[in-house]
Queue: 4 jobs
Job 1
Amino acid sequence: MPVVAMKEILDRALAERYGVAAINIVNDLTIEAVLAAAEQERAPVILQTSVKTVDMYGRRRLHDIFQALARDASIPVTLHLDHCPKRSVITDCLRGGWNSVLFDAHELDVAENLRQTTEVVAEARAAGAHVEGEIEGIQGVEDDLGSDEAPAVHSLEVAVDFIERTGVDCFAPAIGNAHGRYKQAPVLDAQRVSDLVAATGVPMALHGGTGLSDEQFTDLIARGCAKVNISTALKETYLKSSLELLREAGERDRWDPPSLFRHQRAAVVDMARRHIRLFGGSGRAW
C-alpha cells in the first residue's frame, strides 16, 4: 500500500472511534520495528519525526530511509513532523515529502499563531499534505522543545475559532497532559476533547501519552482523540533494551552487534503492538 494521507487515516479513526498510534521514531531500526508491529496488528500507523531527528540525519537522508522501509508496507502509514516551531523546517519537510506537520506556534499570541498557521495550511495543501495545530503548549520537555511550566489554557470559543479559521486537519488540546514521565497521576479535562470534537468535527491529537492509564486512553479515544502520540515509551524501550543486552554481553564478554539489534527490535515491536492493541487500532488496516 502506498503512503496514505494523515487526514484519511485520522478521519476514519475518528468516525469509528479508535486511536492511531503516532510513534516517534529515532532511526532506521525503530522505523522498521514500528512498521513490523503495525503489519502484525494489521493497523494503520503514523511515524513521527522530531526536529532533532531531522537535524541529526538531514531531511533528505531521513526521508530516503523512510521511503525505503515503508515502500512495501501493506498497512496505511504516513510520515509526520512533530512539534516544529521553525517555518524553514516546516517548508523543507513539506517539500521533501512529509505527509503532515505539527506547526508548534504556541509561544506566539493566538492572533499571530492563527495567521501563521493559516499560511502553513496553505503551504501544506499545495504540497498535498496536512497540518496539526495547537494554541497551548503541552507541559514537559521533549527533544529539547517545551517547558515544565503548566500552559495557559484558552477558552473553548478561542480554540474552536482557531480550528475553523485555520482549517487545520487535527488539533492538539492541552487537557492536563504532559510530555515525558508524569510525576503524579494526571488529572485530565476529558470533557474538553468531547466539546472540541462536537463543535468542529476535527480529530484531536493526544500528546503526552506515555504514563496514562489504560482507562484514560480508552476514554479519550472514545471522545475523539484519533491520534495518540507515543515518544517517551519508545525511547525508554529502545535504550533500556540496549542496556539490558549490553550488561549481559559485558558479563559474558561476548560482543555481537546483530544480537543487540535483534534485542532492540523485539522490544520496540512488543511496545508498539501493546499500544496499537490498547488504542483499538488492530485489524483496522484497509
Note: The mean pLDDT is 92.
Job 2
Amino acid sequence: MSSDVVLDARFTHAVYTRAQTARHVGLDPDDLHRAAMWTVGRARIGKQIGTMSNNPPPIVTSLRRPSPPEPRIPFIGLAEAVVYAAVRQGTSLPQIHAHGALSIVRKSLGGAHPLATRAFVTDALAVLRAYAQHEDAAPEIVQAVTAPAPSTPSIPPIPSIPSIPPTAPPSPSARDLPVPPAALPADESEFALLVARVAAHVDYGEDGYTRRIRLPGYSTADVIVDSGISGGRPFFARGGPGADVETIVRQYQGGVPIGELAGRHGIPSAEIAELANLTWPDPEPPSVAPPSNDHLR
C-alpha cells in the first residue's frame, strides 16, 4: 500500500455506520455486516494464545472503533459495498460464492482496495473468465460469468448530475465518465451486467480510485456521495452539495414540512419523503465476535 493511500481520508476516515452503508447500497444489513467483519480470530495453542490471520480481509473495509455508535465505514468501504451489492443483487451467487468471486478478483488485480478502482470495471470479468477455465472452479461462479442471465435485470437510466455551484469544483457524472469499451459487457452474463451497473453508478478519480457514487439503494431519491465534498456526506443530486441529506432529514423531523424543504432546496417532494423518516446517524449494532477457536489445543 502506498503512502498516498495511507494518508488519504477516503481510506482512513470513517464516515458511515454499517447500517447506513447497507441502506445506501440496498443491502440487507446483516449481509453487509458479515461482508465488513474482520475475520482475524484468536486460537489457543497449548498454553499460548496465537492470532489466526490466514483468512482474507473483509470485502467491505470497516475500521475498528471503541464504541458501537461511531461510524466504521470509510468512503472507500462504501465504494466496495457498491460492488458487493451489485454482485449480491445482480447474480444468483450465494454469499459464500459472492465473497469467493470478489476475493479472486481482488487477489488478481492486486494493490490496495482494488474493488474500489477502475480496474474492477475494466478487468474483473476477464479475471473470472480465466478462473472459470480451471478444473476446480466453483460451478456457481462459472455460471455467473459465462452463461446468459436467466432474466436481464434492468439498469435504470442515470440522469446527469446537476452542475456543482462555484463553491465546489465541478465534477462529471458517472454517466459522462469515459469508460473503455472493454469495460462494457460483451454478453448478458450475470457478472457482465453487474459490471455495467457498477460503471453506471461510479465515477473514478485520476488516481483510479472511486471519487463519486450515485447511491443505488434508493428507488426514488437521487443521492450522491463525493469524496471531495463535505467529507463524503450524502446530498440530493438535484439540490447540489448544499442539500445535505442528514440536514434535510433532521429539519423534517424537527417540524419543517416536506413541501417547504422541497421548495427551499429544489428537490422533488417524493425524494425527500423516501428518506424523511430515517434515523441519522443510525445506531451501530455491536460487533459480532469471531468464532471461538479454543478447541485448537
Note: The beta strands are 14-16, 41-45, 48-52, 73-74, 202-204, 210-214, 223-226, 235-236.
Job 3
Amino acid sequence: MNDRIRQAGEFLRDTVQQATRQALSDHDDAMLRRGFTSAAGITVRRIQEMLDASKEQMKSTGLTKAEQAQYAQLEELKSGLEADYDRYWQGTGVDWRPLKPIAKGIVRRPEQQ
C-alpha cells in the first residue's frame, strides 16, 4: 500500500512540475512574441515617420534627386524588413505586426487645460 501511495505522490508531483514547466514556457513564448512585436513596431514606425516626412516635403517643396533616392531606399528597406518578418513568423499563426495606435494625442478635460 505504501508503494502505491508513493507512486501516486510521484505521479502528482511530476504532473504539477510538467504543468509548471509548460506554463513557464508559454509565458516565455508570449514574452518573446511581445518583445519582437514591440521591436518590429519601433523599427517600422521610425521608417514610416521618415517616409511620411518625405511625402509631406514632396507635397510642398519637392525632393531633390538625393532625397528621392533616400526615399526609395527607405521604402525598399521597409518592404524588405516586413518581408523578412513575414518569412520568420510564417506558419506560426503569430501576427508580428504591431497594433495601430488608437489615438494620436491625449484627451484632456477643459478644466485640465
Note: The radius of gyration is 25 Å.
Job 4
Amino acid sequence: MISKCDFLPFGKLVAVAFLSIACICNAAASNDALAPKSKVEDALALPLHTATIATVSLQQSLLFYRDALGLAVKGPITLTDKQTAQQRQLWQLPKDLNWQTYHLFRKGVPEAINIQLLVLDKAMPSIHDSWDSTELGPFSLGFPNTDTIALDKTIRDTGFGALNALESYPIPRPDGSTYQIDETIFNGPDFLHGVAITRGGGMAQLGPIDGNGLGGPAYSAQIIEDSEQHLKFYTDVLGLEIRSDREFKSAGDKGAMNLPNGTVFRFAIVYSKGATTGHMLFVDFRNLKPKRPKNSPSLPNLGLGMWTYPVTDIKQVITNAKQFGSDIVQMPIDVNSPIYGKASVATLRAPNGFLIEVFEAK
C-alpha cells in the first residue's frame, strides 16, 4: 500500500479506506504505506487474536459465519466451573447469566482472527440499535477472499442484506495500469457487519486465504469519537502503532458504507509492530454527528463486545494502563482458555468502554 491516495477519486475513497486498502499499487514494501517498518521483536501486543461476540441467535450466527463465510465451528465447548467463574470475573458477567461457548475459526489459516461466540441463555441489551454505519461502537469484521462476486450471491441467498450493492471499481497503480476491487459490507447477526473484499489484477489479498479462496477475519473496525484519546490508548497502553492516518470524503450513498453525501471522516489503521494482518480500523466523523446507541459497547451486551490480544509482557501492559488512567477490570489471573490455552489474563477498558482482554501465554 502506498501513500499516493491523491490519485483516487473521492467517490471511491470510503470503500478503499474503510477496508484498509488506502491505495495499494504494488507489492514492493518501499511503495506500501502499510508495510511494517517496525519489528515483531519490539511488539508488546501482538495481532488481534480473538473477537468475542455475545448472541442469543445461534442459528443465525452459524448461518452467517459458517454457512455463508465458510468458518469452521467447535462447540458447544465444555467449561469447568473454575473456567466459567474466571470468565465471569474477567468479563464482568452477571451471576444470573449463563452461556454456551462456540469457537469459530478459519481452518488452515492460523493467522486469521478467532471468533469466540457466547450464546447467552437469556436476552441482553444490544450494543447497536441498527446496522446504521454512523452508530458509534464496534462496526465490522473483515473477510478477504478471491471472489466477492460469488460470495456476495452466497450471502444474499442465505437471507442477509448489505449496506449497499456490491461495488466494483479500478484502482490505479503508479505505472498507470489498474486492478479491480470488489467489495460488499453485509448486515450480519447482532447488528455487526461482515465485509467481503477481493483485490484483482494479481494483487495479494488483505489476509491469508484457504484452499477455497476464503480468508479472515483479518481485521476489525470501530466507529469512534475523540480519536486522539482513543488512539493514544491503543498506542500507549498496548504498544500498537498507527500505520496510516488520513482524512477522507466518503462516496456517500454510492459508497460501501452508504453514508450521507459529503461525509468527512478521520480514518486510522492500527497494527501490532511488525505485523501484516490482525489489524484494527478506526473511523471518527468530522462533519457528521454519529448516532449514540443506548447501551455500552461491551460484554454481556449483544454484539461484538471484546477484543483479545496476546502480549509479550502483561505486567508492562498493566503499568501502561495505570499510567494512562484506564479502567482496569481485572488484574492478571492464571486461566486455561478454550481458545488460547494456559495464560496470565487481564481485562481493561478502552476509552469508549469497549472491553479489552490481554493474555501472556504460559
Note: The chain has a mean pLDDT of 89.
